[in-house]
Amino acid sequence: MLFESSLSSPDTKGSAPFIRLIIPFTAGILLQYYLDLNVYAFLLVVPLLIFSGLYRQFTAAWRFRLKVWQALVLWLSLFFVGALRLYMADLRHHTAFYPQFYAPGDMMLLEITGPPQVKTNSISAVAQLKYIRHNGHIISPKGKVMVYADKRLKDSIRWGSLLYSNNTLMPIRNRAESSFDYQQYCADRGIYHQVYIPANGYHPAGIAPVNRISLFLYRASGFCIATFNRYLGSGPEAGMAAALLIGDRQGLDKDLVRDYSNTGIVHVIAISGMHLSLLYASLLLCLSWLPTGRRADYLKALLVLLFLWGFTFLTGASASVLRAAVMFTATTLGQFVLARKSNIFNALAASAFILLAVNPYLIMDTGFQLSYLAVLSIVLFQPKIYNLLHCSRKWLDYLWQMVALTLAAQLLTTPLCLYYYHQFPTWFLLANLVAVPLSTVIIYGEILLLLLTPLPLLASWIGRCVHLLIWFMDLLVKWIGALPLALITNIPCNKAMLVLLYLALAALALYWYHRFREARLTVICCLNFTLVALLYLQWRPANKPYHVQHYTLQHGKRLVSITTALPDVAPAKKFRTNYIFLSRNPPVDIRQIAAFYDFDTLVIGPGNSKRRIEQWKNDCYVLTLRFISVPDQGAYVINF
């Protein structure tokens, strides 16, 4: 079977050490993320390490008695290591963080670390602070800044440029008239200040050497985009081709992105693990003709890894592609090199451990969570769903594999999607059956197009075929998105319901694999409790009407003040207002507010927690809502 062959069965036996390692490591990261422990708290790990060092000096009898304590010490050590890793990843905790060494007027040496982007009136680029001359001392600080320069300098400032400037660093703020959360966007990348450089406000200091691999990837990405624009035209098809192959979404049509999102197949245009999983399974099928043996297995592993990582770098090596590449690298090495295809869970845990060790902030990334849940769900449930029906015809069996894979991937990701987005695409199965095979063929066609670029005639024919396939796929997705009840919105799902749904799924897995009667009862009870909670949340607003507290301003404008929680279910018709004012730290979600109110501007007032303000701002950016943060931008005057 195509997809079963690409993933190890969870029924197999074997050790899984990384599962025992990832749990305390992740718990430590989460604790540090929410509590922001002081560095002195990590001194608690010292006696644990001393105990680990002295453990082997004990006699065999004492080691047996202290075996439980050794495991506890290991868990606590990994717990503190996870917390310490997140603490160290926060640039603001670094002793050389630049704000403490900088004063307005200080001379700085900046290195442009990426390709500058040309905007309407200026150019922008990220710069590394190489040196600061502060109080007569030359200091090598830690940190990056955003550089804005006069547009006339677009030919002078480029990747690798070294610039001397004494222009003042300013904290990055959001513009009141813009809905783009630029401040949060930069903070996520360790950038907290910006500097504007006029045409005569800097001194060039040469060109720094640019990393060859990064430069190669940048040029390869530009070559792909130029090729698609040449052979597919400058329409939406070229933008879709760039998104499918290299993850560049700048040329995508916004309405088309919404159609893909509403049909539950936005992963198709996000270069997600689905792409690499299909390619991985296809590779195993193509290599199945090779003979068995250790040398053949090594050759298979080499070919699979070369293809996977070649495709990863071709797509720009984005975070989502790297996640999938690490997962399948671990699976490939375990299956072909180590001859241990016994435990896919250990491979998943190992890849997660590596990625979180490199960037612990990934634990809060929705894409990271959904990526691992989708793969885990496929491993757990796809074989069981597939075995429910046996098809004699090959084409029907292949279709059933696709259905089983789609249903399996949806099981563990649906609760989290309901919790985050409160909507469900009812035609997700049909959309996946259409888009996934088509997108796979299109990706192969795009790679063939790039390879045939030296032959313009053949490339032109391939380009026409790819253009037609993309047009046809977009047409089908739009049609599916227009079907009745294509998207169910405003589905209530709180944390309690999320836990109940995952308990039900865990019990379902236990029942399928071990036939525990208690597991079947647990599934029924959890689903019943979830249904009761859903009915309660649906009917509660009808029993207790929600009164909108609003004020009338000049020229008939309205302002709604929100200081407490909103009901869990939105009304049938939104309340129209011009302003939403958030104060007193209300426990509300921006998506929930958008479901209740049709508004122009969201005003975040003082008296709200910093963490909640950052979450609101990030959600406003994702939903493209106009907002104003008074704690960040100062007073905002509304005339009554």
From TrEMBL:
<feature type="transmembrane region" description="Helical">
    <location>
        <begin position="465"/>
        <end position="489"/>
    </location>
</feature>
<feature type="transmembrane region" description="Helical">
    <location>
        <begin position="264"/>
        <end position="290"/>
    </location>
</feature>
<dbReference type="Pfam" id="PF03772">
    <property type="entry name" value="Competence"/>
</dbReference>
<protein>
    <submittedName>
        <fullName>Competence protein ComEC</fullName>
    </submittedName>
</protein>
<feature type="transmembrane region" description="Helical">
    <location>
        <begin position="39"/>
        <end position="56"/>
    </location>
</feature>
<feature type="transmembrane region" description="Helical">
    <location>
        <begin position="427"/>
        <end position="453"/>
    </location>
</feature>
<keyword id="KW-0812">Transmembrane</keyword>
<dbReference type="InterPro" id="IPR004477">
    <property type="entry name" value="ComEC_N"/>
</dbReference>
<feature type="transmembrane region" description="Helical">
    <location>
        <begin position="68"/>
        <end position="88"/>
    </location>
</feature>
<feature type="domain" description="ComEC/Rec2-related protein">
    <location>
        <begin position="244"/>
        <end position="513"/>
    </location>
</feature>
<keyword id="KW-0472">Membrane</keyword>
<feature type="transmembrane region" description="Helical">
    <location>
        <begin position="343"/>
        <end position="363"/>
    </location>
</feature>
<feature type="domain" description="DUF4131">
    <location>
        <begin position="37"/>
        <end position="199"/>
    </location>
</feature>
<feature type="transmembrane region" description="Helical">
    <location>
        <begin position="302"/>
        <end position="322"/>
    </location>
</feature>
<keyword id="KW-1003">Cell membrane</keyword>
<keyword id="KW-1133">Transmembrane helix</keyword>
<feature type="transmembrane region" description="Helical">
    <location>
        <begin position="398"/>
        <end position="421"/>
    </location>
</feature>
<feature type="transmembrane region" description="Helical">
    <location>
        <begin position="15"/>
        <end position="34"/>
    </location>
</feature>
<feature type="transmembrane region" description="Helical">
    <location>
        <begin position="495"/>
        <end position="514"/>
    </location>
</feature>
<feature type="transmembrane region" description="Helical">
    <location>
        <begin position="521"/>
        <end position="539"/>
    </location>
</feature>
<dbReference type="GO" id="GO:0005886">
    <property type="term" value="C:plasma membrane"/>
</dbReference>
<dbReference type="InterPro" id="IPR052159">
    <property type="entry name" value="Competence_DNA_uptake"/>
</dbReference>
<dbReference type="InterPro" id="IPR025405">
    <property type="entry name" value="DUF4131"/>
</dbReference>
<dbReference type="Pfam" id="PF13567">
    <property type="entry name" value="DUF4131"/>
</dbReference>
